[in-house]
Protein 1
Amino acid sequence: MKRILIVDDSFYMRTMLKNMLTDAGYEVVGEAPNGQTALELAKETKPDLITLDVILPDNTGLDVLKGIKAEQPDMKVIIVSAVGQEVIVNEAIENGALSYIVKPFSEEKVLETVNKVLEGNGKN
Amino acid sequence: MKSREQEYKEIFIAEALEYYDALNRHISELERKPQDDQVLAEIFRLLHNLKANAKAIGYLQISDVSHKLETAFSLIRNKELNFSDEVVTVLFDGIDLLGDLINNIDNDSFGEADPVLLRNLDIIVDSLSDSTIELAKVQKYNTSRNLSLSDLIYIQIKKLDHLLNLVGELMIDRDRILSISRELENDDLKSVSSHLYRITEELQYSVMDARLVAIGSLFNKFPRIVRDIAVAEKKEVNIELSGQDIQIDRNILQIITDSLLHLVRNAITHGIEKPEERIKKEKPREGQISLTARSDRDNVIIRLTDDGKGIDLKQVKKAAVDRHLLSAAVANELPDIEALSFLFEPGFSLAKEVTEFSGRGVGLDVVKNAIDSIGGRISVDSVKGKGTTLTLQLPTSIAVKGALLFEVDEIFYAIPLMHTESVVSLDKDELHEVGDVLVANIKGETITVAYLHELLNAKETAMRLGDKTKLKGQVQDIIIVSYNNRKLGLIVDKLYRQQDIVVKPLSKPLDKIDLYGGVTLLGTGKVCLVLDVPAITRYFTNRR
C-alpha cells in the first residue's frame, strides 16, 4: 500500500483529501497543518508521496518543498494550490515538485494526479 | 449513518467559525499596525482557506465574499491600496458579512448579502487607490446594528461539579430541617421548611439539567471511527445511529466514552465477519451495527447491536472451565444468561489475536468496572451466527440516586434502586440450608439468600450464613438484588421506603470495607450506609 503524507493548514481540506486517498486504497501516514510539522513528518514517516499546500501559517510551501528535497531528493511531491497561484506552482515545479492539483479539486483529478506521479519511475 | 456530506459540512462550519474569529482578531491588530506584514499574511491565508473550502463544499456566496476580501488584502499587502478609515470600515463589514453567512448556512430565510456592501467591496477591489471618494457616498452597512452577545456561555465542568456538591450538602441539611420541624410541631417552621424543600428540589434539578449534554456529541464520532476500523480490518460495516438527542450527565458520558469505543471496536473486530464469509453465510455483504439511546424514566439505555457472528456459548463455558472459574459439570447446566456473565470477569477474553484496533488485554471487565463506577448496568445477549446486543443502563445523573432504605440491627442501610429487582416476603420454612448458604425458590428461580445481619455483623471466621437458626421471626423480608445477571436475596430486619439520596464517599478507615459503596445522611440526622451490590454479589460468587 502506497503511503502518503498530507500537508495542508485546513482541517477541512485534509479531511477531504484523506478520505479520497484512503477510499482509493492509499495509506495516509500523516497530516501536517504547518511547515514545521511537515518537515518532521516527512523525515519520520518517509512516505511515498507528499501533497503540499502552498500557503502555510509558518513558512511558504516553497520553503517546505526545498527543505524536504534537501533531505530526501527523490521524494515525490504534488503541489496543492488555488487558482491564481500559477507563479508559485511554476516555481515549485522548477524546484522538483512533480505535479499539481488546483483547489477546489475533484476526486477524479486528485486520484489521477496521484496515480500518475506514483506510477512514474521517480527519476524526476 | 450520518453521511460524509454531513461530516464535511460540520467540519467546514467549525473551521470557518474559527477563521472568522481569527480574522476579527487580526484585522483589529492591523488597524493599530497597518503595515504589519505578518498580520497581513495571516489574514490572507485565512481568507484564502475560507475561499477554497467554501468553493469545494459549494457555499459560493462565502467563497465569493472571501475572494473579494482576499483580493483587497493582497492589494493592501502590495501597497496598491491604502488602509484608510473608509476601506477599514468596508473590510470590517465584509468580515461581519462572512460571519453572518457562516452562521446562517442552514437558515433558508437568510436572504441575499447586502448589495451595497458587495458593491463597496467591488469598488475597493476594482478601482484601486482613488476608490475612497466613491465609497464615502455608498457605504452604509449595519451601522445601526446593536451589539449582540451570544446566548450560550461555556462553563468549566469543575464549576458545575462544585455546584452539584453544594446542592448535595444542601439537600442533606434540608431533610434534617424538615425532620426537626416535624418533631417541633411548629407550623411556621413547617411551612418554611416545606417551601425550602421545593426550592432545593428545583435547584437540584436545575443544576442536574445544566450538566446534561446530548448523547449525539459522542455518537456522532462513531461513523468515522467505524469506517477507519472497518478499513483496517478489511471489513464492510455500516453504522446506524438513533437517539442522539437523548440527554445525559456530561461526566457520565465522559466515563463511558472509552467503554463504548471499546465495545464498538469489539463488535467490528470480533463480531462482524469479512465480506466473503458473510456471503457464504447468506448474510448481506455489509455488516450492520446500530447504536441507539433512549430514555427510560431516570435512566438512559444505550444499546449496541451487531449482526456478526455472535458469541459461542460453548467457547465461553470452555474458557470458564479452563480458567477454573467453574467445574465442567456445573458449566454444562449453566443457563445461557449466566454463562454470558463470565465475559465480564477480569482477564476473561475470547480473542485469540491482538489486532491494531481491538487493543491488548483489555477485556469487558474494564468496561464493566467503568459502568459499575457510575452505578450503571451492562448486559449482553447473543445468538450464535446472528449477532450480539450489549445493553448499557446508565443513570441520567451521578449525584442523586433513588434508593431503597431498610434497617438491620437498628442501623439504616440503603441499596440503589438500579440494583434492586423486587422485594418479597417469605416464610422461614421456604428457606433451605444448602452448604454454607441459604437458598430459596423465588418465582421459579433458585436464588442464594443471605441474612444481612450475619453478613454485616459477624466476624468472618464465625460467620454462618447457612444457619437458619440465626433468623429472627417467622416471616422474612427479602430484597432481591441483581448484578451481572446474578440474583441474590438479602434478608433485612425492617423495610422503610424509597428515597432520593446523595451518596458521599466513605472516609477512612471505613473505605477499606468493600461491602459499602458510600454513606448518606438521613433527615433524622442518622447516618445511612449504602451497600455496594456489585461487591456483595462478588463476595458470594467467590465463595461458590
Protein 2
Amino acid sequence: MTSTGLQDKRWLDPDATPFIEFRNVSKTYQGVPAVKDVNLSIYQNELFCLLGGSGSGKTTLLRMLAGFETPTSGSVWIDGVDVTDWPPYERPVNMMFQSYALFPHMTVYDNIAYGLKRDGMPKPEIRERVEELLGLVRLSGFANRKPEQLSGGQRQRVALARALAKRPKVLLLDEPLGALDKNLREDTQLELIKIQESLGMTFIVVTHDQEEAMTLATRIGVMDEGYLVQTDEPHTIYEYPSSKYVADFIGDINLFECVVTETESGDLSLYSAEIEAGLCPPTSFAAPLNQTLWYAIRPEKMRLSREPVDADNVLSGIVHEIAYLGDFSVYWVDLDSGFRIRVSRPNISRLDHFAESWDERVYITWGQDAGVVLTQ
Amino acid sequence: MRLGRYVMPVSAALGFGFLYIPILILVIYSFNASKLVTVWGGFSTQWYVELFRDPQILDAAKLSFKIATASATLALVLGVAAAMTLVRFRWFKGRTLLTGMVAAPLVMPEVITGLSLLLLFVALDNLLGWPAGRGVTTIILAHATFGMAFVAVIVQARLRDMDRTLEEAAMDLGARPLTVFFTITIPSIAPALVAAWLLAFTLSLDDLVIASFVSGPGSSTLPMVVFSKVRLGISPDINALATLMIMIVALGGAIGFWQIRRSMRGRSSR
C-alpha cells in the first residue's frame, strides 16, 4: 500500500531536486564503522522508511540528519544547504524519539509548547497552536496531564504533536510505533500517513519492522552493516530485491544456488545442485555461462498440487510440516535432494483437503517470471 | 529451631540499641530538672529556656546557620559544575583520575583538610590580601570545599542515570545548551540537588575540626562553642542544645533521603 499517487513520484524524475541529501556519508565510532559511504536523496512530501536490523546504522543515519552526530566524512544537505556542521537547535528538522523523551516534569501542554517558546512565539499563538495539535492527535482535554498519567499510545501521540509543533520541514521518526501493541500500531500507521499527507511534510521513519515499512513508505531504504543496500518503492523491494540480503530480510523467500547452463537449442538455463533440478530463468535473463548466482522465489508465488502439472518450473517432494497461520498455511516440503523449501497457500475454503497431506508427495510449480535471479 | 525466629529481631534490637541508646539518654537528660548531669531530678524544660537566654550560644547558632547556608549553596554550584564536566563531556585524558580526585576529600582526614586550608588561606592573605585574616569567609570557603565533594558525588550519580534523550529532545526543539541545562537538566536532577544541598548544610553545621583550623577571633561556630563549654564541665543546657541539633540534622537527613527516594521512583517509572 503506497500512500501517494503517481504524480508525486519525484524520485523517478531525473531533474527533480532532492530535499534531503546524504553525500558519501560515513560515520565511525572509535574505529568501528557504523555508516559506510551512504548516498541518499529524499524528496519533498516523501514518507521515506529506513529499514534494517539492529546495528545496521539506520538510527545513526537519522541522528546525523537531526544533528546529534557529525559524519566522519561526507556531507548532509537539507533544502539545498549544507548542514553537516549545524547544531541540532538550528536545523529545520524535528524528531520523534523512540522512547518519546517527553519531559516528565512538564504537562502535556508545556511539552508541546516547549519548542514554540524557544522560538519566542507570543503566548496566545502558542495556545492556539497547541490546541490545534491536541485536536490533531485526538488528545484535547489532556493538556494538563503529566506524561506519567498517560497510556503508551497517548504518550506516543503527545510525542508526535510535540515534534510537529514547530511545523518542521522534515519530521524524523525513530521507531515511532515500536512500543505499541499490534492493533494500535496498525491504526496509528494509517493515522501517520493521514497526518503526513494533510500537513504536506517530509517524513523519515526508522524501523526494523518490514511490515510497517511496507505499509507506510513511499520508498524504502534497506540498510545492512552500515551500507544502504537498496532504495526503492515497497513493491519493487519485495518483487525485485537487489541482493540475497534484501530478499531474505523482506518477507520469506526460497533461495537456490545455481550455475548458468545452456540448453540443446542454445537458450540459457539454470541448474541448481542444491535441489538437483534445472530451472527456467526469467524472460530477458542474460548472464555469462557457468556463472554462479542465486534463484529466489517467494513462497506465495508457487502452487501445490498432488498430481503432476505441466509448468515452466516443476519440483516434487514430500510434505514435511504444515503450519496453519489462519489466513494462509505454510508447507515445508522436502525435495528428493533433501533441500527443504517453503510454499504458502491461502486458506480460501474452511475445509481444506490439502491440510491432511503430511508425508504425501506433492508437486510444486511456478511460472517463468515468478522468481528472480540475484547475483549477490 | 524455635530460637531461630528470635535471632533477627534480637540482633536488630542490639544493633539499633548500640546506635541510638546514647542519643536517647542525652535527649532524656535534656529534660532533667537536676543540675547534675548524671542524676535524674524530675522532668523540666528549664535548660531549654536557659539555652535561649545564653547570648553566646544564640550568636554561635546564628553564625553556624549562616555559614552552613552560604557554604552549602557555594558547594552546590561548584559540585554541579564539576559533576556536569565529569559526566557530560566526552572522554578526555585523565577523566577517571579527576573523577577519583573529586571524591577524595570524602576520605581525607579532617585534620589534614583543615591544616592545608589554613596554610592556603595564610599564603593567599600574604600574597593577595584576600581573604583578609581568618573568620566567617574562610570557614565558608573551607566548608564549601569538602561540601562540594559530596555534592559532586551525589549529582554525578543522578546525571549518569538521567535519560539523555530528554536533553536531545530539547535541543532538537530549538533550545540552546544553556536553556537545556536550566529547563531540562536542572529540573530532572532537582531531588538530587535538594539532597546534596541538605547534606552539605548538615556537614557544615556539624563540623568542628576544619572550622577550628580556619576560624579567627569572633567567629566561633556552634560546635566550637559547645566543645569549649564541655571542656569546662558538662552543663545540662548542652544536652538541650544537642537535642535541638539532633532534631535539625535528622529533619534535614529525612528530607534529603525522601528526595533521593523520589528521584529513584521517578527513574523507575520512566
